[in-house]
Amino acid sequence: MSQPQASHTTILRLFNTLSGQIDDLVPADGNELRMYACGPTVYDYGHIGNFRTFLQVDVLRRFLKLTGTRLRHVMNITDVDDKIIRNSASAGIPISEYTPKYVDAFFEDLESLRVERPEIIARATEHIPKMVDLIQRLEAAGAAYKTEDGSWYFRLRSFPEYGKLSKKDLSGMEDGARVDVDEYEKDSARDFALWKATKPGETSWDSAIGRGRPGWHIECSAMSMEFLGDSFDLHAGGEDLTFPHHENEIAQSETVSHKPLARHWFHVRFLLVDGRKMSKSEGNFYTLRDLLLKGYKASAIRLALISVPYRHQLNFTFDGLVEATAAIDRLRTFHQRVTQAALQAGENPEIQQMATKASEGYFAALGNDLNTAEARAPIFDLVRASNTAMDQGKFLAGDRDAVLQVLRDFDAVFDVLEDRDTEATRRALAWAEQAGRTVEVAPELVAGFALSDEEIEKLVAERTKAKKMRNFGRADQIRNELAEKGVILEDSKDGVRWKRK
Ligand code: AMP
Ligand code: ZN
User: Fold this and answer.
1) What global pTM score does this model have?
2) Section 33-54 average pLDDT
């Protein structure tokens, strides 16, 4: 297993929905942190709200690794549920043909956003026997019952602790009232479906408890038990999952195990767009692909979605993306400058001190409930001060490593320094073309990707040669041609740099 070398041993203090306070997050077995994060329902392309949650879980996992914690992170893929069944039925294909496209799209999007893959990915439809087995154990415990149509429900009355995660007062809940949809609104705590009897035209499985298909909640209980055991360190998801999904998971798992399902519960606050709920009818609904095709860079989307700490409301705006783009530009330019600059020998104690302070500030902010906004600040301060010192010839060769180490630790979590944006945008363009999407691709974006990296490098080299031969006419011509295709050149004393607009 490749686990990172810890450069710091900060203990992460993280808000815990279950205890209602900030608790230390440490593996119970002192060795490996076992966590389960609810994954996507693959009925459509992921939107930026979904990715905000997956990105914040990525921040969590990367910070844990950076501070020396080994991880066993499980993510499920919900590839059978009400919405999938509805959509596949209207497309006239079985769910096994409907979902693969969205599973692939999801992983492609995670790659574009540089979200690390969990150690274990489990698809619901591949674990049906485990779910059936759990329902049988619930029945044996008197917590599951079968209805006349052959469906199975969880008996809420059998689990008095129901509501302990969401802190809802459920005293008025109707005894024996049932709900069979996977997602339902607050204040309607009722016996929920564990297994839904087969209906004509729906995908179903033969099993010891009858022919049918699982409800949504049972999959996470069955799969977390399978891969992490009865009780594990942390459970994660968006805040909407607290109730009923996570409450139901607790009821199912703890009824049979008599142990706490997870000690720590991590919930990411919902993303808003321009201050409103994101919805198709409001016209403010964006998938990752929508944004890439509008010309925004994947790294900027990543930075914008993680820079607001997970417990704060992120109000997504295009201005936020523009700000993130500029911030990344500054970081990348600085990184290149520090790496390549010819520096005089020696060390500047002021820079050394600043690097130490930036590093401490960075680790302290992330260690304090993953405060990504506060973690960014000392990094940008260091960049500013180092640039000034370099301009004045006061940044010395011995300062390079100290500053680069701070940038490395920053990037171990933020991961925006290396430019992989072109790949992400190219993938989105290829997808749009192949899917026959009539998207409004920004014209300058199309221009910027008209040339491959190699073609650009060739033209840049030709221009340098032309300048050497004092053929300035040709040199200007190449500069203009590149500009028309969305490539900007910057001449500096260290040579020519280029970038896409
Ligand atoms: P789904 O594919 O709907 O099951 O959702 C996948 C993940 O995205 C879950 O953890 C949800 O809680 C989360 N999620 C959905 N909408 C939003 C949103 N607007 N902001 C943040 N997280 C969200
Ligand atoms: Zn779940």
Assistant:
1) 0.90
2) 97
